[in-house]
Design a protein that fits this description.
single chain; alpha/beta; TIM Barrel; Immunoglobulin-like; 3 domains; 5-stranded mixed sheet; 15 helices; 35 strands; about 20% helix; about 25% strand
């Protein structure tokens, strides 16, 4: 990417407009974008499904706040859950404004690059080894799905820039180097060097803290040679006395600066004019309504327009002038609200007029600003709320309607186009030891291919596009069967054959010397007259043998009174019969190290006909374990 005047150009040299949304989580110790823990089902909790929903709502860019301390120092949290991926119909309904008539012939397009999934699981496809690798994967996943990706070092949670400037620059160098190793990530990357520097008193000039000029230049000097295609997003600072929000503050008018005691970015711009990355710079102020800023004036009408032009609007027309004039693109890095306060609503309406350069907002002193990143997707943003309600599932449509006034184009506003379709014809080949009754359905989008026998061809019609066929694993008493995922292309009017070939691997059950600590909660009854009790059981499993027990490993928890397992964590519940709870522990991080070097926690809510929930026995891979009970 690069810039030309006040426009941003993509890697093909075409002018683009960034319609972005902020999604934080890599900055607040979540070690992933937030909300995957919401418990509101896969529409809200499955990462790839949420990305798909964002794209269908019209967003083509994402801003990812992060902390270097989180990326480099924290172990990633596990977000894998058992789930059923929602159908295309459910996804379409979730991103369709119920107040807008939609042509029944208009349906959502398929996701560009869906992940390769394990059937029946959400979030199993992203890395669990390090938070940094997970972040790199997230950037790449967005990029592969057509998003421009703005990564943002969030100063509020990460003061590395102030604590160790040399380390901060090195971290930026390392991060951009790693991201740029993938060609798709490399060409879609944008860099917001430091978020809201006002927050820690950073000014353009050096003082008690490093100057923002020097901080910016030190990073750009190092990073630009690594990825000359990346854009640098520059936030302002030190101009709160004219009402500039944190992250705003680019005024260079000498009279304005003198009269208000503003920090002056002139030296930064003068130096920038000499740099080879001049045309890689985007001005990125933050603009918020009064419920966020606390402003008592100049948040609507002429006062607002004059403030925005003085700070950054002038950089689009006539630009920064020092001998000659240089115009810059402007992309609003943050703006948002709960849309509940009348002053906020009026302020945001006037901000829209200013961005569109229309009506009273057309002051003749700036050009339309078509690039922006709304704050935020996250329901847990305290002062603005999110695009989604507090359940992380339902869209707040008045926010989408507002963003549509500044260029967002949700899928349902697009003209219906005839849906081109083709056919997938699938069959499963016989495999030694696999019975036809063991076969499981194979799902592609909404279509479920069900097989009653081998070599039986099942055909389904799907929209033209690329699909990943991921057959589910099949486990029998002695063998685990798997088939390789296949990426296929459906073309208009044609039948695409898919042949699924399962291969079996005998299940080798390693023996061990196991100890299980059982932590019981306090039993309760939902309905005392039912005679049914419930309790939470946490199990802490150790392997005292000299041999590592890799996943998957099996566990059986026995108590003749056990009736059901309504919920469970860190384990895949298989069945319960005659008081025997059967489960499988699958994740690689749950391998049992030898000699008791680690303890793996699994847990479940269990119902019972007795208030005594103590297991009479526990078996790991068929071997009885030593049991210790704690309360």
């Amino acid at each position: 990417m690069t810039t030309q005047g006040d426009q941003i150009l993509n890697s093909s040299g075409e002018a683009i407009e960034l319609k972005g949304v902020n999604w934080f989580g890599f900055n607040n110790q979540s070690t992933m974008v937030d909300g995957l823990w919401s418990g509101s089902g896969p529409l809200a909790s499955d990462f790839a499904t949420v990305v798909y929903r964002m794209q269908l709502l019209g967003f083509n860019a994402v801003r990812l706040p992060f902390s270097f301390k989180d990326l480099y120092n924290l172990s990633p949290r596990n977000y894998v859950t058992s789930c059923q991926i929602p159908s295309l119909t459910a996804i379409q309904n979730s991103v369709t404004n119920p107040s807008v008539p939609v042509d029944p012939n208009n349906i959502i397009p398929p996701m560009i690059a869906p992940p390769t999934r394990v059937a029946g699981q959400c979030n199993d496809y992203f890395p669990n080894d390090t938070t940094l690798n997970r972040f790199l994967w997230v950037v790449n996943f967005f990029a592969k799905n057509g998003f421009y990706v703005l990564i943002d070092n969030h100063l509020r949670e990460d003061q590395t820039a102030l604590e160790d400037r040399q380390l901060w620059v090195q971290r930026w160098k390392d991060l951009v180097t790693k991201i740029s190793q993938d060609p798709i990530s490399k060409k879609m990357l944008m860099i917001d060097i430091l978020n809201e520097p006002d927050q820690f008193g950073i000014r353009w000039e050096s003082g008690q803290t490093p100057g923002l000029k020097d901080l910016y230049l030190s990073v750009m000097d190092v990073v630009y040679p690594i990825n000359p295609q990346a854009l640098f997003f520059i936030e302002g600072t030190g101009q709160g006395s004219i009402g500039a929000n944190w992250g705003d503050g680019f005024a260079t008018d000498p009279t304005l600066i003198s009269a208000n005691g503003l920090s002056n970015p002139k030296s930064f711009f003068d130096t920038l004019l000499t740099k080879p990355y001049l045309n890689q710079v985007v001005i990125s102020p933050h603009v918020y309504p009064p419920s966020v800023t606390g402003a008592g004036q100049n948040f609507t009408g002429a006062g607002l327009y004059n403030r925005l032009t003085n700070s950054f609007g002038y950089l689009t027309q006539p630009g920064y002038c020092s001998g000659s004039c240089k115009t810059f693109p402007v992309a609003i890095g943050e703006f948002g609200s709960r849309f509940t306060e009348p002053n906020d609503v009026q302020s945001l309406e006037d901000i829209a007029k200013y961005l569109n350069n229309s009506g009273a907002g057309a002051d003749g002193k700036h050009r339309a600003i078509k690039n922006w990143f709304y704050w935020s997707w996250n329901a847990n943003s305290g002062d603005t709320g999110g695009i989604v309600e507090d359940n992380w599932l339902n869209i707040i449509w008045k926010k989408i309607d507002y963003l549509a006034t500044i260029g967002l184009k949700p899928w349902y506003t697009q003209a219906a186009t005839p849906v081109k379709t083709g056919t997938i014809c699938m069959s499963v080949s016989p495999a030694t030891g696999l019975a036809k009754g063991d076969l499981k359905p194979i799902t592609i989008n909404d279509q479920s291919f069900e097989f009653s026998d081998f070599n039986l061809t099942v055909c389904k019609t799907l929209p033209v596009g690329s699909y990943t066929v991921t057959p589910p694993k099949i486990t029998t008493a002695t063998t685990q069967f798997s088939a390789n995922p296949q990426t296929i292309t459906v073309t208009e009017g044609n039948a695409t054959p898919v042949y699924v070939a399962y291969e079996g691997v005998p299940i080798v059950v390693p023996k061990g010397d196991f100890a299980v600590t059982v932590q019981l909660g306090t039993a309760w009854q939902e309905n005392p007259s039912s005679g049914i009790y419930s309790n939470a059981i946490n199990l802490y499993v150790k392997n005292n043998s000299a041999t590592k027990i890799s996943t998957p490993w099996k566990i059986v928890v026995v108590n003749s009174a056990y009736k059901s397992v309504p919920s469970y964590w860190n384990i895949v519940f298989d069945s319960i019969a005659s008081g025997h709870i059967n489960g499988t522990v699958r994740e690689s991080w749950q391998a049992l190290a030898p000699n008791g070097q680690n303890s793996v926690n699994i847990g479940m809510i269990v119902t019972s006909t007795s208030p005594n929930f103590v297991p009479t026995s526990i078996l790991i891979n068929g071997t009885p374990a030593t049991i210790t009970i704690i309360k």
